[in-house]
Fold these 2 entries.
Entry 1:
Amino acid sequence: MLLLLSSLALITGSWIIVKQLKIKSITDSILAVGIISIAAKILILLTAGIIFTSLNRQTVLLLVIIWLAFSLILQRILQRLTSKQGYFGNFTNRKSWEQDKKFYLSTGLILFQNPITIIVGLVLFLSFYYIALGWIYLPPFAWDEIWYHLTPMAFWYKQEAISPLPEATLWHNYNPAQVDPSKLALDLSVAFNWSNVYPLNTELSALWIMVLTGKDLLVDAAQLPYVLVGSLATYGLSKSAGASRNTSLLTAMLFILTPMVLIQLRVAYADAAFASMVATSIYLFLRWQQQLSTKYALLLGLSLGLMMGIKSTGIAFAGILALLALFYLVWHYKTGKIKSRMLWQQTAIAFFALVLTGSYWYLRTWWYYGNPIYPVELNLFGLKMPGLGSVSQLFMTSNTPEAYQNRNVILNIFTSWLELGKETYNYYSRTRGLGPIWSSLALPAVLPFIIYAWRSHYTPPLWMVGIILLFLTIQPAVWWPRYILYIIPVGLAAFAWVYDHLQKKFKIFTSCLLILHLTVSTSLVLIETLDKLPLAMHLPAQSRTFGQLYFNDYIWVDKIPPSSIGHTPMAWIYPLYGGLRHEVYLIDGISELSWRKAILEKDVQYVVVTRNYGKYDSWAKSSDDLLDLYFKGDKINVYKVK
Amino acid sequence: MSIRSSNKDTNKEKPLNLSWSIFYMGSAIIISLLYYLNPGLSKLIENANKWLKWVNNF
């Protein structure tokens, strides 16, 4: 209930602010409410966790109330300044209200008039229904979320403060050159914990849920707010491409039903959220170009900041879009279309919004490691910053599928983009995930889409395709579908335009193909993603855990009362929190003596040891005066402290 | 190049010419076939069976 009320208060505050911006387009107004709400949520959590170091329900609620009060005060000030009707005025303004009502009614009517939108709408509804059951009945289980996406959130929730995980200081002077190459990947994945170096805007949605509910139920829905915004941006891009409202609505739904987006809605990863914010940034860039107004500069800045705060690739994408926007502004200034005051005002506002919502994670990493994108080595214009290696060395070499190694990258792209891989639809799939609608209906639409736009001097399609191509040139592993999900909204915009311009007989055939693809791919995604759902729905709540559903090594976590658990360096830390019931601490040391000292200092009741990593297990075995073997798992041993 | 409004319903504009329509439909059909024939029809049927079992479990 508190989660619902706080989220509603957050959205209401954003709505009041957006009403003051007097954005004419209703789509853009809703999009602005989404972006400002997400930005406000991030700022509230960062303020509570870093400035007040009091990340608890009371502080967050107080900050939500302050946010609501701020929006009302801002509304009053703006009303006085402009002497015009504001939020309440607009709400009672018959014309505006009637206009809104007409828009919602006509959008609703579109849904019920067109059989294709009815079918796609139904598939979307069913998918959401089952994914929501997954959020309720299934615990977080995917590799990266229980390793570094959710672990810092649980740690911060318990500490009531946002601070680096202990690994940050322990691994400060790590030297990969001294590590055997075969052990490097394990070292990086076991002990380094990427949460100390990755931007974590998306994960803060999970923290929001933890702080307001005190539980981790629903934390897998962390990407939902972003994906909804991305769906709206897809609608906007399709409209900007020149498609009808009907088809644009169809593409908005198809974006969410893209296999990898749907898969990611079930897990607290960041790729679907990132793709959504890339699409939003491109859409707002186009809208800003058309309007050249300060309010769109503000929205663009917020969107770019949110995007770069999700994944490190976003900092490069934000740089490209910011430079393009700057060139565009300067060009308009040179040709006398805008004044210098407007140029500086818009640049400053967009930059301020970008820094506000996207810079924290990079400043943190810079402060701790001397490089904002550590551990990736930075060598730009003669500026060299420390790192452990290149993106390829650190991430891609070990993650490239065997069939893709030593093969031409074009062939790898061809295999993944055309859905020719042999993997199933799972969250880690590297050769599939864009879906048959993308490969067979959206991708072939891009060529006629840009050629017609070029011939008719219609610039938005050229901008959107051009920007995506620029992004792809700097994107590592372009064959990995979850990394390049941002190509989907633009592909769907191309499809929307072509679909609207097909002759009736071709259109009917395309519609049939679309429904077939959608039914097949969505069914396969739901089977794979929710395979444990039928079992979980038959189990009592206390048995629906990671240990009992996914990995027996963690089964003991559910059976002990709320305890203090210590662990040696390991990857899957999050399930140790047992639905946030337990306290979890890193227990490390360079010798047996210092390790034993750490156990006593932290006063933990259990110590989890990864058997295949370091000397910890032999130390534990020789410490029978301090530790008793409590549980023997497949990969871990659990000791009870005497 | 001029910038046009994006809020225009283009349904009334000219349809795609025949060669582009054939290019588009041809590509869509070939890629769809590749999708359903890879990793093989048997795999698809296997997945369909898995899906039916999953539905029955509810």
Entry 2:
Amino acid sequence: MLDISNKKIQILGTFLIVILLSKLLLDNIFYFINLSSIFEITLDAFILLSEFILLYYIIKKSNLDIKIYKKYFKKDTTSEDSLNSKFILHIKILKYLLLIVYIIMIFTPEYYNRIYIENNFYAKIITSILAPIFLAPIFYLVYILLNRSKSNSNTQLKFYVLTIFILFFHLVKIIDYSIITFPGYIIGLILLITNIAVFFISIFVINNNHWIAYQSKKIKYSLILNSLLIIFFLLNISFSTDTLINDYSSSISFTYDYYFYGLSSTVNLISLAGIVIFFRLIVTSIIYLPSSDAFERRQNEMISLASLNKIIAESKDINHITNTVTEIALKMTSSIFAWAEIYENDEIVLSSYHNTSEKYIRQILNDENFNKYRMDCNTLVIDDKVDRSIIASNMNYLKSMIYIPINDDNSKIGAICLVNNKKYNLDEDEYEILKAFSINVSIAFENVRLLKESIENEKYKNELLIAKNIQQNLLPKKVIQFEGYNVDAISIPADDVGGDYYDSVLLENGDKCYLIGDVSGKGIGAAIFMAQIKGMVMSLAPTSTSGKELLCKINSSLYGNIDKNMFVTISTITISNKRNLISYCRAGHTPLAIKKINEKIEFLKPKGFGIGFVNENMFNNNLEEIEVDLDTMDMIFAYSDGLNELRNIDNNEFGYENIRFILDTFKFGSALEINELFLEKAKSYSETLNQFDDLTLLTIFKNRENNE
Amino acid sequence: MSETKNLNIEIKEEDGISIISIRGFLDANTAPNLEQAVEDIINNNKYKIIVDFSELDYISSAGLGVFMSQIETIRENNGDLKLCRMQSKVYSVFELLGFPMLFDICDEIDQCKKKFENG
């Protein structure tokens, strides 16, 4: 609460005690030797000043008010609001401080005043203890008003003027007491003028009381009550004495004046200012009281809209939304009960309900007339006079209802229904707010759907990415290389994954077999099929002695086991170790291009069915394997139909002629270079290579070094 | 390239033979439509089918699968699926896959009809 370890407070506290003790001592000496009072006043002023500073530090340094503030007003408020809330809290604290003083005052019999005078020494001690307690609420009042006036320089100026008036009168009193004794009427006149001035300035000190309008009814009542109590206490404490004639009828005024001459008048003036200010507060609160309901409702609406937006942003679950939204709508409209219904396949499904039982709502939902009435509502409907004939028999009390449709993609998917036993009588603004609410609810629902879709999409994308990685690992990063030849293969899928395939395997006899394939279709289905083919090639190659045998085995395994409209085309290029012979087998795949030095480009097209079309017999009998005679610097080029069927902007195919031309004009280079050249040409042909189909290239180049 | 190309399918009956005229683009996207059309014909117990390719601009490998999927059923019921009037580009795709060894591919509809008559 209060940080006692604070250095300033410690020093001030010590200082105060020292002066107090010395004053007690000196007072008693003065009592006997009867010295002039100006000396006494100076000392009094010292004590008073140090007490003020100490009190100020205690209030300022203690986080007392902040802690209580946190407890009282936990809700989030804007900075302006919190300033007002703080003010309200200060008023409450002031009330308690005044109450304490009031109680002490009541329980202090008047004859104590006499004891004080007669027994100066003890009187001084008691006064020294009581005076700060009595001064505390006054000081707190000044503190509050000072704080309050800070926000506005104009108010601050008025406050300073007020302070000057009060201090001026205090000075007059001191002069009157210590230097020249003014005639009573002069003091009276000055007091009157000061009182009038303080009264009028106080009226205008805190001008801006509009914030009260925005407070809830409860807070307004509390403001009125607290202010009334404060005025009552201030009147009793400060004005129980007519200081003018120095007739102390209460211990408190006596204490003030006995403590420091003229203090009671000053306190009176401050109290007067306080009374005026709090009276204004009461008047303002009362003026704004009738509008409380409207303000509160509007505020509820605003809070509701704000919380709705929060729900929209956070919700992922339809039921959670309907539940909250129904509750908000219920509060907003002050209906007797509410429910949310979702329409699924011509059925009304209860999603949530508030202020009623499920059984009861289900009864309502079984009423056909009433259901039909609601189904006919397509926009926001506020019916303040619901037709008797459509209401269920058990809902006779129902006078009005609000139907808030929930739309998704321009079709009604549900509604929030609110019913009331009296008319809603909504004004235009409230109707607009309800309309905005209705739109927001629909947006919330749409968001949930979109979010779900995007999550699905994202999931699908991730899975596709995984599939892409898997597939890329299925294709060898580097095909088998061996002396005398230079081989390179590349595959670019049209989508994330594709159905093209290339590979290099060793056959049973150690021959190297290069494969290029294309499964029907593209995308995920093709990719899975391609993975299956890869598996077959891997397992069947070690037991096959030729490309043809491998293809026949694959066909035998596949035929009858796959969808009839699925198939795969594969070409094998087998390079025999022993005889340095190249054989080519084509199971439905695009023709193999062969470039021989000084000869025309040739496309080889031996007979062969696509794999998976026909049975073992038919396939095997119709599959040809031809031998290719390849000399040094000769080259063979295999590709998928993604190349020859590539289309340009005019929808013309790349075709065999372009392949022929590129191979013809290509003078010399590695297999990698020829593949890259084809990719580049394909890209420029289709302009973006926004490929239509998967594209795979396999080039085998016979090196110069390889002379037999 | 990614714009969807359509496939128009027209079916008419001549002398107990169903003639399917296809126009446009036959690929993975449009193949199911043709497959459905062929299936519908078979479901009506008609097994003599001629496909007129004259207005087909493009066929992809997936499009070829359609003709394989039903051929067995058709032939088991003493019917056949005959193809005709292919543009050379389209024909070459069929040729690569060995279709000429499986299907009767004629230049004109009448030739196909004659083949049906001859049995």
